[in-house]
Design a protein that fits this description.
The protein is mostly beta strands. Among the domains are: about 260 residues, no CATH class; about 170 residues, no CATH class; about 240 residues, no CATH class. Helix content is about 5%, strand content about 50%. The strands form three sheets. It has a 27-stranded antiparallel sheet that branches. Strand 39 and strand 40 form a beta hairpin. The protein is elongated, with a radius of gyration of 40 Å.
């Protein structure tokens, strides 16, 4: 049996590259006065500078039996005598100094030969002479052996009397060493040791070994047993030759509730000397691979020589660092003169050297890091140097450091743009919980100026001590806008009319929060709120256009709501900050209570909602102000051309009490589902538009009906369209509703807004200009005049005809019959035995009839014809079409109000996407063709193209094209865009390493200020 040694490190504090010191057992460091008894361990010795005798015992040999001597104080040592805790004086350099150069020049590069004296990168800590240090005992090692290529490994041994005992293994050998029960001290002196599981696997074609302290009976001619547990007295040195691989895998616990940190690295070379006990090695022409979580490829370090100075320290000479799919010829790499890779569990520090601290406890954070320190660093692309720095130090696990994203571009609105986003936690050296993110934005726009901002997102339990879930974010962003655009105004597209003065310093502040206060089954109480400040009218649309068009209003409010079973309520406080360009309502406050689906004797269902509120309606006071669509004379259907400001959007402050009730009594009559219902709403206003108090009674009722018919066509089968039987389902519905109000909606302030802020703003801006619209030949469209003046396009009248009943201020007398049908053709798709039902074709159609057409629908008995069609040809190919038609008696040969579109969607698993849509709109004579293509030409190349062309105007509205190449090392993106409405042309060029993209996927996201 061969007993291989448990790992013991070399002498603490000695030069890692030096040979192991030889102990002198006659000189022992005595205990210092007041020292506590030391743990049983090997004594720390003092090393004399003189060379030891040839027969002196090695440091790892069993202690030599010597006569005990009483402890005595060590006399002062001469200047040439040092302890094991102090670096000996460096020997004189064997290389002559350059003419005129001091030998100790701090800027002199170290010798390139690793066998010459090396200057350390940083000074080492020196302990006082005579300090007692208790060395930890070695962890048990479990070693297994096996052949490498399936053939029996041949072993040859030297004489049994020699020490160290020599052996030779040929034919391929694999050795696996498992360290169990190993711990490492925590950097925090108060914390317990950190448990570590480590596994080392060695493979080579041939090996020569030296075993120190082996017993003669443990060695046999057939080799060691397949599994061995070593003791603490045996040491092994190996010379490995022929396709040598040393693979190290370890798991280290990071803390309570956190998954262990898994690490793996592989060292390959043709020749390696490896000291198993001390975990030291010397590799010739070595290649090391590091598996880093989140990287697309392993990090590779290739060097002429690699020294392993311990379990967690490597020194490399003339090395390359890369992370590429092309291992032998990386396109992007970093070459260095000399590098040191240190893996350790230590107090984490940021780029400024400050230790990371837990945000809640204030304790320093302990974690695993792999620090690569290099000298004379060149960054090369295809062997061409593009950057140099004298010294570089980085954490291999986080090479991007605090940088989260980088983007740049150029257009005619912002100019040359540079966007940098940083991780604030890493900049400050703070480790928060797992559910928060803090970003810092430092941007520059050449036509605008420098910009600065921050985003903070959070979620999780117990922020304010409620012990419940919460989530939210805080955001601010500001810019020193230098207004270098022509005219000094924002470019928003189109004629915007007179623009107000735009401040020099512009920005926003936003905080949104949601908090669970109580929850027990179906009973809950929640709160959400928002604070929003905008510097001026155009800021959000110019800098956050996507949010302006799609996200909720930028309001300031606090809302408390909850429910228990089918009852609930809410309390709303809304006091918006100064936004004179928006028509809005301040609620001070608004309290609502409701009951939903209350069963009455299994015959009827009762719903009720009550509201008590005090509101302040504040219309926009700067351009564009609210506009109306005209006033309809109920007796004259064609009286549509009276223009006036919006009568409902005027300044008003009123208390409002509202109580709405609804009763349904559904029942089945054969195949028909019948649902008669009634609605009563009573409202009180303390002040209407005339400044007087007013009561309003609104009552209505009707009946709904629906029935469904279906038929199965199981004989229908078509492989081309992936149809396996057809099931046709057809639902027919009708709803007749009649209501009467004793007060017209035109006499009441519109406290409950129908449109969001962006839609309302655009409506007020565009409506007066629609009568100046021109066709492709420059002729003014007659239909534009009706768009500006006809009440057909008034939002409140449209809501009344659509039977929108949840807006208290937008209710009026109406009689209407709604008819609709929903058609479904379903089939089965999927693997045999696992088929699932899908909608193959769907068609939904609806229309409305108005018995009192002059009052309710501008003299037309029928209107609001709609359809929606969708055909899923395959799982990834579909055709869709939507349309809306409302006949109007405009006269003068004008087209009716109508809209229709038809589109084709085609997707593939490789990311290929085709989308083409044709849109037809009257009475503005718009014929727009929109198309977008994303085509993956190969795994490396992808092109995207999108455009919009209006044949009614004979003009291309937008064009955008992007070309993307993903290489083995770098990703290149080139794109351009043109917007005819804004007359803006822009382009973007980016070349970024794949390593950086893996760490920050948003590096190629374009102008982030438009999407933040």
């Amino acid at each position: 049996m061969i007993a291989l040694a448990g790992g013991q490190g070399g002498a603490v504090g000695t030069d890692p590259g030096a040979a192991p010191p030889v102990p002198n057992p006659a000189i022992v460091v005595p205990p210092m006065p007041g020292d506590a008894p030391a743990a049983p361990t090997r004594p720390v010795v003092v090393v004399a500078p003189a060379a030891p005798a040839a027969d002196a015992p090695r440091a790892a040999d069993p202690p030599v039996q010597v006569a005990p001597v009483p402890p005595t104080t060590v006399p002062p040592a001469p200047p040439t005598t040092v302890t094991t805790f102090q670096r000996p004086p460096a020997p004189p350099s064997v290389l002559p100094s350059a003419p005129g150069e001091a030998p100790d020049d701090p800027f002199q590069e170290p010798p390139i030969s690793p066998f010459l004296p090396q200057r350390p990168f940083a000074p080492e800590d020196v302990l006082p002479d005579g300090t007692r240090v208790n060395l930890p005992t070695a962890a048990p090692q479990y070693i297994t052996y096996g052949p490498r290529y399936g053939n029996q490994t041949k072993f040859q041994y030297g004489p049994s009397t020699e020490n160290p005992r020599r052996f030779v293994a040929t034919g391929g050998l694999i050795v696996k060493i498992v360290y169990q029960g190993k711990t490492i001290p925590s950097p925090n002196p108060l914390a317990p040791p950190i448990p570590v599981y480590e596994e080392v696997e060695l493979g080579a074609d041939n090996a020569v070994g030296w075993i120190h302290g082996a017993k003669a009976e443990d060695l046999g001619g057939d080799g060691p047993p397949p599994q061995t547990k070593t003791d603490d007295k045996t040491e092994v040195e190996l010379y490995l030759q022929g396709n040598v691989v040393i693979r190290t895998m370890s798991e280290q616990q990071q803390g309570v509730g956190k998954p262990p940190q898994k690490m793996e690295q592989v060292l390959r070379a043709q020749e390696i000397y490896y000291d198993v006990s001390k975990s030291k090695a010397l590799a010739i022409c070595g290649n090391m691979e590091l598996n880093v979580m989140g990287f697309p490829d392993n990090v590779r370090l290739k060097a002429d020589e690699i020294w392993q100075l311990g379990k967690n320290e490597y020194r490399m000479f003339r090395n390359e660092v890369s992370s590429s799919k092309r291992q032998t010829d990386p396109g992007l790499k970093m070459t260095t003169r000399q590098s040191v890779l240190t893996s350790r569990t230590a107090v984490r520090r940021n780029i400024f050297g400050f230790p990371y601290r837990n945000l809640k406890t204030g304790e320093t954070e302990v974690g695993f890091e792999r620090i690569l320190t290099s000298q004379s660093v060149f960054v090369r692309i295809f062997d061409t140097p593009i950057f140099w720095e004298p010294r570089n130090k980085t954490d291999v696990n986080e090479p991007m450091g605090p940088l989260k994203s980088l983007s740049f571009g150029n257009d005619q609105i912002f100019g040359v743009q540079l966007y940098l986003t940083w991780d604030m936690y890493k900049l400050l050296g703070v480790r928060p919980g797992d559910n928060s993110r803090w970003l810092l934005h430092t941007d520059y726009l050449s036509l605008r100026g420098p910009a600065f901002g921050s985003d903070y997102d959070y979620s999780g339990p117990d922020l304010f001590g409620f012990g419940r879930q919460q989530a939210g974010f805080f955001r601010f962003y500001g810019i020193d806008d230098e207004h270098k655009l022509e005219g000094g105004q924002d470019n928003l597209g189109g004629d915007r009319g007179p623009e107000p003065f735009t401040p020099h310093y512009r920005g926003r502040v936003q905080w949104r929060h949601t908090q669970d206060l109580y929850e027990d089954g179906t009973t809950y109480v929640r709160a959400n709120g928002q604070i929003e400040y905008l510097s001026d009218k155009n800021y959000l649309e110019q800098y956050y256009n996507q949010e302006y068009n799609t996200m909720p209003n930028q309001e300031t409010f606090m809302d408390l709501y909850g429910a228990k079973g089918n009852t609930g309520g809410s309390l709303l406080f809304e006091q918006n900050l100064a936004r004179p360009w928006v028509t809005e309502t301040n609620w001070l406050p608004k309290a609502d209570g409701y009951m939903i689906g209350q069963n009455l004797f299994d015959v009827a269902t009762y719903n009720a909602k009550a509201s008590v509120a005090y509101g302040q309606l504040r219309p926009a006071s700067i351009y564009p102000v609210p506009v109306g669509q005209g006033v309809v004379n109920p007796q004259v259907a064609n009286n549509l051309l009276i223009t006036n400001p919006s009568p409902q959007d005027v300044a008003d402050s009123t208390g409002r009490l509202d109580f709405m009730q609804k009763l349904d009594a559904p029942f089945d009559l054969g195949p028909f589902r019948i649902d008669p219902y009634g609605i009563v709403d009573m409202t009180y206003y303390s002040q209407d538009l005339a400044g007087k108090s007013r009561d309003r009674f609104y009552g209505g009722g009707g009946v709904r009906e629906s029935f469904t018919v279906s038929r199965l066509y199981d004989e229908v089968y078509n492989e081309l369209f992936n149809v396996h039987g057809l099931y046709h389902k057809s639902t027919w519905s009708a709803n007749f509703y009649a209501a009467h109000s004793d007060t017209s909606y035109t006499l009441l302030p519109q406290m409950d807004r129908l449109n969001d802020d962006a839609t309302d703003y655009e409506h007020n801006l565009v409506t007066p200009r629609e009568q100046t619209l021109t066709d492709a030949n420059g002729r003014v469209l007659a239909g534009g005049y009706y768009l500006s003046n006809s009440p057909v396009f008034d939002p409140q009248l449209l809501a009344i005809r659509r039977l929108v009943l949840d807006r208290v201020d937008t209710l009026d007398s109406i009689q209407e019959l709604q008819l609709s049908t929903n058609q479904r053709l379903q089939t089965k798709r999927g693997f045999p035995g696992a088929e699932h039902t899908v909608d193959w074709m769907t068609l939904d159609m609806s229309m409305a009839l108005f018995p009192n057409a002059n009052r309710d629908n501008f003299g037309q008995a029928a209107g609001m014809f709609e359809y929606k069609y969708l055909w899923h040809i395959g799982d990834r190919t579909s055709i869709s079409s939507n349309g809306w038609y409302d006949p109007r008696a405009f006269g003068n040969g004008l087209a009716d109000v109508r809209y229709a579109d038809i589109g084709l969607n085609f997707t593939r698993p490789d990311g290929t996407l085709y989308q083409v849509t044709y849109r037809y709109t009257d009475p503005i004579d718009s014929r727009a063709l929109q198309g977008s293509i994303t085509y993956a030409m190969s795994r490396r190349y992808k092109v995207s193209f999108s455009t919009s062309y209006d044949f009614g105007l004979n003009q291309a509205q937008t064009i955008q094209m992007t070309f993307l190449r993903t290489g083995a090392d770098m990703t290149a993106q080139i794109g351009f865009s043109y917007n005819a409405i804004q007359q803006n042309f822009g382009f973007q060029i980016a070349f970024l390493p794949n390593l950086a993209l893996a760490q920050s996927p948003n590096l190629l996201s374009g102008a982030p200020v438009l999407s933040r």
